[in-house]
Amino acid sequence: MRHFISLEDYTADELNELLVLSSELKKDDKAGTIKRTLQGKTLALVFEKASLRTRVSFEIAMTDLGGVAIYLKPDDIGRLGEREPIKDMARVFGRYVHGIMARTFAHDTLLELAKYAGVPVINGLSDWSHPCQSMADMLTIKEHFGRLEGIRLAFIGDGNNVARSLAYASGKFGLKMTVASPEGFELDKGTIETANTLGAGKVVQLNEPSEAVKGVDVVYTDTWVSMGQESEAKKRIAAFKGFQVNAELLKLCPNAKIMHCLPAHRGQEITDEIMESANSIIFDEAENRLHFQRALLQKLLA
């Protein structure tokens, strides 16, 4: 494993190894026995768009392992490729640091960084995928159910980067995933076809939330308006009416665990009541971003 860009690039064994390491390092963290395996290593945190969890979790993970993280905020760099060519920036980074975590708009930006940097590149989020989030989600589901294979997961909302990475994870780990989206906002057919060739998992696209959640183990949702889509907010909110994760919908799966990658818009895609319910494991998955990313950094940089 040289980079960490998108889950379809790795075998199920490689990904499972990362989950096992995440669990081990999480136990070490709770016991206060984390080893400083990245002493002398430096990670560049490159942000085209701002983030709370991505920045804090990567910075803490790097510090825990004895390394140093350097934060480059959107004001410092703007859109990559505008001030200077991405391939030039990548090769400079490659001579300064031991790894790059980039949170970008265009997925091609990450691919170009990985091509030219000469050091590991980690996808902290792109418009195409969010692999660190979906791996933290898999860690969380495994902790609560003791397994991943055969878990029934319903994703209610936009067929976006989070849905796509969950689809790939479902294919690799053997989950049964249904996606419910309004017409015109579905997960693309190419992603579904790819996910369904990756392993024992199965991904199906529907347009009716009530059909998607019947008898599932996990209900997952995400914002209807992602960063960069603000001009579409009114149109999207209207289109997603009826796709809210609320008490009425969850009568169809009363024991399901509730997940959300955050930030959440309470009262839009999910109600405050469900966010705060006993079935919510939303903050467990937020915490597990730290534990998974700590394992990823050790794997790539140690």
Which second-level CATH architecture of the largest domain applies? 3-Layer(aba) Sandwich
* Overall strand count: 9
Q: Which geometry do the CA atoms define?
A: globular
What class, by secondary structure content? Answer: alpha/beta
Task: Assign a percent range to the helix content.
Answer: 40-55%
State the separation between the terminal residues, measured CA to CA. Answer: 12 Å
Beta-strand proportion: 5-15%
| Low-pLDDT regions | none
CATH topology of the largest domain: Rossmann fold
Encode the helix/strand succession as letters.
HEHEHHEHEHEHEHEHEHHEHH
Largest beta sheet, briefly?
5 strands, parallel
- Can you list the strand order of the major beta sheet? 7-6-5-8-9
Mind telling me the CATH class of the largest domain?
Alpha Beta
Instruction: Estimate the mean pLDDT confidence.
Output: 96
Number of helices: 13
Number of domains: 2
Explain briefly what this protein structure is.
The chain has helices at 12-31, 53-64, 74-77, 86-96, 107-117, 131-145, 161-173, 189-195, 209-213, 233-239, 247-250, 272-275, 282-301, and strands at residues 42-47, 68-72, 99-103, 121-125, 152-156, 176-180, 202-206, 218-221, 257-260. By secondary structure, it is of the alpha/beta class. It has 2 domains: 7-130 and 286-301, Rossmann fold (3-Layer(aba) Sandwich); 131-284, 3-Layer(aba) Sandwich (Rossmann fold).
Draw up the topology in text.
Blueprint: H1 12-31, E1 42-47, H2 53-64, E2 68-72, H3 74-77, H4 86-96, E3 99-103, H5 107-117, E4 121-125, H6 131-145, E5 152-156, H7 161-173, E6 176-180, H8 189-195, E7 202-206, H9 209-213, E8 218-221, H10 233-239, H11 247-250, E9 257-260, H12 272-275, H13 282-301
Parallel strand pairs: 1-2, 1-3, 3-4, 5-6, 5-8, 6-7, 8-9
